[in-house]
## 1
Amino acid sequence: MSVDSKLRGTWRKGRMHTHLRGGAHLISWVVVAFLFVFLADWTFDLPMLVRIPMTLVCIGFVAWLLRKLWWHRLERYNALRVAVRVEREYPELHSLLISYVELNSDQGPRACGSPELMGLVRNQAEDAAHGLNFRNVVSFANLRRLMAGALALVLVFGAFGALATDHMLIAAQRMLGADVPYPTKTRFVSITGDQLVRRGDKVMLAAEVSGRVPLLGTLMVRPLDDPDANWQQLQLDKLDGDRFEHELPHLAGSLAFRFAVGDAVTHRRDEHGTIEVVGPPDIKQTTIAITPPRYTGEEPRTAEDLSFAAPEGSTVVLDLQLGSAVTEATLVFEDGTEQAMELSAEGQAVKAEFTANIGGSYFVRWQVSAQGQGFSFDGTPRRLALEVDRAPVVTLRQPTGEIAVTTAKTLEMVFEAKDDYGIESMKIVYRVNGGEEFGVDLPALSKPGDQKHLAYPRFGVWPLAWRLRDELPYLKSSDEIVLQLEAHDVHAATGEARVGRSQELQVRVLSMLEYQQYITERFAEVQNRIAELKAKQKPIEVEVETLRKQVGSNKDKE
């Protein structure tokens, strides 16, 4: 075999060494990268936006290693480079092989000298190379460990493939962008879907499974609007029909949920079921304008609390600004009366005007629309404290009880009257001998000094003199009169004034002789009462005098 053939065979063996080394690296790193992405995806259920970039990074890393460890190590045939490697293996050639290559090609420096000398060098090189195996310069022994490692990884990959063939196939699809779940031994047949419910309602979450069904399952819930919150885990017992159920009573806020039974989970890590709770709107601002009736003399006022007080008959304008839109709003009063409220174009402001004639509790009934569904809510009960216009209170101070008079007597009386907003008129109402009731209008009441600014007096004490003969000319002795003082308050509508009466006064009409005897008897009663009082007072005076003397004696001693 010629020297050129030996050199080219050595180059081919070296190229085979490079291919084997590169192929071993390729197999090793491809298996490692695939298993790494597969285990990470299977363990953490990576979303597509994570696993696709991870796959691309692994592919890029493997390509970079192969370029460095394989592609860059592949060399074109260069006889001089091969000759140098052979000379290193066989130093006894003393550079004859290198000189040979230089003389037979343009790869080295241009040779010089006579043709005879050049032929002599070629012959010496061929003689020296005869019997030498140039291919020994390339050894495959250093590939044993690398090839063994590659083979071990292939066996591991094969074991994974045999034990989890479906998982490996799914992993390959997921690495290529398919969004398919890994198979599990437990499989969900049906689960509760996303729900839209009223605040305060109860919700039943259920899942039916098949395959390997354990005795316990888990329901995981967290607030829907707080993705960073920890999942609360609720343990569930298996029911008949391989079902797992849990009831959530009186939901106050929206929830995200997942079921985990055996090795199966209903939703991916970045997914969840949804229970969206729809509630009444939040009231951001409240403005209440209260205009009392004119007859009360009170100024208009405002309130900011939905529980408020207003004089009876006031005009109330209720204006509410809401945090979310409603489709309808209705005021519902304690007696069942309802009044629709005006809505703004956006549904986030409602307004109502009504007359405050019904006190007690009331609430707003809201109609809310969400995802094409309508929900009705009864708002928090509020209280309208109605300041009722009460009837006047009249008290006859003097005289009281029962008195006696003659037909010529002028009846002297003192009365007290008071009312919320003013006393418009007074009258005496009376009956003679239990007969028909009559009335006598009295002059308008004078206003006390501190009430001059009011249209009508609201409280006070007034004297009254009623000459019986002027109103009752046919009055005779032995008649009996029952009388009361009647007060009428001010009111917006005529005929709606409230009326208050004093206690009754019994008046007996006597003849002059009977009246004198009556006065004498009353005088005697008064005298006896005075005597009794003096008798009771005397011991007290003696005791007081004794105490004075004791106090004086003590002072003298000091």
## 2
Amino acid sequence: MWRNHEGRRRNRLFIIILLIAAAIMAACRRSNPEAAALLARADSLLNPPPSTAARSQGADTPPAGGPQGALHLLDSVQHQARTAWPKADRMRYEVLLAEAMNKSYKPFTTDSVLKQVVRYYDRHGSNDEQLKAHYLLGCAYRDMGEAPAAINAWQEAVDCADTLRTDCDYNTLYRVYGQMAEIYTRQYLTDKALEAQKFNCRYAILAGDTLYYIHGLLMLADNYYALKDTDAVFQHIEQARLLYLERGMRHEAARVYPTAIQIALEHGHYKRAHRMLHIFEQESGLFDEDGNISEGYQKYYYHKGNYYLGVNQPDSAEKFFRKLLPIPSNTIDGYRGLGVLFQSESKVDSALKYAHLYEFALVDYLNATQAEAVRQAASMYDYTRNEQDARVKSIEAKRTKNILQGVLCTAFLIISLIYITYRRYREKRTTEVMQLSKLYQDTSRKLSSTLDELSILNSENKTLERLKQEYAEKLQVQSDNTIEKNRTIAKLLTQNRQIKEDMIAIQKNRDLLIAKKDKEVEVLRKGIKHQHDQLMKLKAPEREIALKDTDIVKFFIQIGQPHKNSNTSGSLIVPAREATEKEWTDLSTTFQKYLPTFIAYLTEEVELSSQEYKACLLFRLNLPGNEIATLLGTSSPRISKLKGILNAKLFSSDKISKFLMNLKKL
């Protein structure tokens, strides 16, 4: 019974600990309702639902609010968010703020905040949250001109993505690859750019962003152009054009052709170039009423001049080449076109003039771009070196991680084995202790029963001795001369002699039985002494286990369960049955056998009242206060007060919290 009682207490303690831990975790992860609502609103502005996003695609203006609206909203609560909001809300705020800045083309000037965000989500975030945090950190490095660090951050973002999940954040993932492709392209790492751009297109489709997918196809065409794969260039451009037309976007469909036109002209396919030039001129929407093209697309004049040059219309070719001369970014193309034109017409002076102008312009261009070229080369070198360092560090990190995991697994297995072995040992030891305690109790009961039988036999022996004496006295009668009296006396003597012989035989049997019982008592006493010696060799906790398994302790635990007295109003708590003084004595005697030093201290070192002594026994059994109150026939407040009195008497201390711990040390 005491084990059930202890088990219930442990279960209650375990449940309380779990509830406290759950409360702490909930408190750590709780969110400010106002903050959550504002962040949800900002998120909806940055990432509108698919239906809203679909309606806005192809429009001249973004949906109402958009990144600018989100940025304004987040800026308005910046101080409050960074000083008063819980950490979870604060980290989400920083992510949304960075995302709004990125989508609003506001350059990042520092990476410190985003580093904190990355550390937080690496420990507490989901895969998608980690993906976005690393992506935005890479964007910060991009704006700060640290291309190698940006690539590393985006690679870490890719590693965070769980593409096996159907709800993976593909919107962020394809943007990561798009940014990587752009960096690789600027660094002339065409193969890497091509690989990143393919992933960009794949995840744009999975994200449902068709327009970004089409843009990715055109970027792939540029990559294939750099690799001289003209068939792949035309394939991707035509695929992009068809997708634009399917969506009713004729202007965009016509604007895909400049690279294809250039390739057709380079290979002398003038009919194909003419068809694409016609579509571009008629459907792109880039030309005004006078035939002038919009700024940024003036390269078209160079293609048009080359076309007329190829179909032998030099006047028209010269017209378009000269349109390039006033445009600083296209002057070189104008000089080059005119030089080739006049050379084809054998106008040597004009050809030499524009050849020299082309040469001088090209030198100026090269001088102007030399620093950028050096910077790009350094960036490429830095990236290659950082990539190698990152690869080495990644391998080392994985090796360290594997070693650590191996060590942790081994340690876990060892600890588990030790725990299981120790638990089995404790269970086996507890069983042995309880068996020893049971044997000790059984032997004690058998000795007590044998002593009682021996006492009865000794008492019966005394009775027989007394009867024998009485019979002897009756035989001493005076002689009588009458024949009849002599005959009567002779008869009585014969009868008494037979009774005496029977009594002697009975006494002899009794003596044998008493001798046998004496031997049994001697054996039992030796057994008890041996078992008691074994009990005393046990550690105090084991002796307490044995003590709590005794019948008298179980009895006190049973009657200590409080219940309401049916003869009262229901408020009085009484024991199931009050313990007698003999039962209290038996409890004290049992304590003496199992915890002799404890009883010696209570009886010899301090002066305690009867109730205080009994209370000490019950406290040592670790019974609840209400059960102790029930057994002592008092109230729970009185037990609390009694604990303080005993603490002062036994330990000269006023720290009641340590009373039970100190009591167990006695």
## 3
Amino acid sequence: MSDQFVLLVAVAVLFVPGALVLVAAKAVSPAALLGVAPLLSIGLISVSAFVGQVFGVNYGWAVAVLVGLSTAAAAVQLIRERPVISRPTLPQLAGLAVALLGVAVAARSWLRGIGGLDTPPQTHDPITHTMITAFIARTGEAGPGAVQATDLLSGEPVRYYPAAFHSFAALLTHVSSDPVVALNAATVVICAVAGPLGIFAAASRIEAGPTAPAFAGLAALFSAMLFRPAVELSHDAGILAFAVGLALLPGFTVCVLDLAGPRQVGRLLVLALAALALLTEHPSVLFVAALSGVLVGGCLAATASGRLWLRAHAPALGLAGAVTIVLAAPWLLAGSALRSQVTGFPLSLQPDAVGDVLERIALFAYGPGFDVELGPFSDRGWDLYHLIFAVLFWIGFAGCLVDRRLRPLAVLWGAWAGLYLIWASGGAGAPVVKQIAGVFYSSANRLFDLPWIVAPVIAALGLGSLALHAARILRSRWQLAARVRPAPVVALAVALAAVLYAAGPGATYAEANQLAVANRWSDPIAIRVSAQDRAAFEYLASVRDEVGRVLNSANDGSTYLYVYTGLPVVNVYPVGNTETQYGIYLMQYFNRIDDSEQVRCLVRRWDITHVFVSRSAPLISNIGSPGDWTGPPGQFRYAPGLADLDDVASVTEVFGNDDASVYRIDPEVARTADLDACSESPSVAPSP
């Protein structure tokens, strides 16, 4: 199938089921169709995964049944009550056109950077995501008790991972048959299509003035060209699940504003479904939504009109929250065991001077993880900024402060920016700051990206507020201006400004995004899986009947063996995980198999028949490795137990090239090893 066809199907899968739910709930509006429909589609996918797990059916069939029921309910609703479609205004058309320009720019950056949907990502986190996608596609299991399997052969034990994104991608494997193509397509349509459209929808609902849609489109365009959050999270840290969750987050704003009305039970169920979607995309994204809601609610409580809105909507929001907890119970229970691992993740941070952090925030810096060799910035070092956007943002920020209705946006941005300022400048251990940061793995990438979500909306709507003030002044002073309708004129002016921005500074930002994506896909600066590795995979697939489990070091991209062939590898995390501690032990000591009864026992117990070794693996941080087995804090590349296997008598190289080797373990090991010589979970310690 062509990439274009796969992307078209991906857009349909992401938008159509949610749109059907909106029709059935009598909650159709342009903003909801653009911003809320993707969330509801993800919510349906998550519910289908749980239903499939409960009834023991393939999750894809559960999706088909629920979408079919939604289609029937939507059809009944359309027959009973035909919606009235109002004629769009010029500002609405202009805003939509600008938003679609943003979608086109973002999609161009992502697709050119990826270089073809079949290009495998080279960052360890997206590699893990392709593996989860492949597991769901191969097994049909996507429920909270099934993902992520740490043993790919048995499917157990399960280390919970929020898999809504992967479940969506797995559906696309029915079109592409390739988990890599499916994952890349899912990434593009969420980050480059749903993301900007969600910003447009949210901005158009936050501000309801006659010119608001045009400026909402400008917000979408701004967001499409910013490095953070989506491109940065994929580039600097490979945090893809969090990135796609943040891309869907603005749509939740539309959901709250449109659906949280009194005495609207059907709509409240839809709101709860949207919240479930955020939770199953990544729990910390729902936390962002909840804490942001508390901050905005505090701002509303300070004004009479805000208190009136809260009194009218708070009961409905509370009920929706209760329904969400009930719906989310299976995922909350499955993920509860990981709470301490997330909040207690080791902190690796050298505090910066307050002035440096303020500069980074105020000028919208790319950040130290940004590769300085990227084309247009190659001669500037790492201190790179979105300078033109920063100027527009601060003008818009002033506009939000002037406009009482937009002040909560400024407060929200200030709160998230302030959190990062305190955390990065030496206050990481401060009360409240430490607890909030812990939800985000105490990760600088995640914390710094949070204010960027609302920044495009502040810039655009603040500029819109100032433009309306200027238009009123002109109308009051100039007789000619009084005869001119300001909304169409302002809308056309915004559309023209948007084109100029996209062709000027925006083009530079978009080029940087494209090159950043290419650094992890089509033109990687660190290679985990190469053509030579793929050749080794093909060899193993050709002798599939002889293969049990394949011992590997996941840092070298060897999990792609499972993605492409379905053959199970032992280690699925770069530094291993406690659920398969035997894999860590073997990464440490496998090359002692000739003399170690414990190694021979583990090989027999886990039916390990082959070993895959790649000679290309990047340096990664070893902070948080189980039992600190990788040694003192520093960097990790190769598993010591897989070194020098040519000198080990119990293994024989059966395939080799310049980058990869496959070794076959002597079958005599499996016949003669003492099964009493090892436990299923051998203890690990720092490597000597």
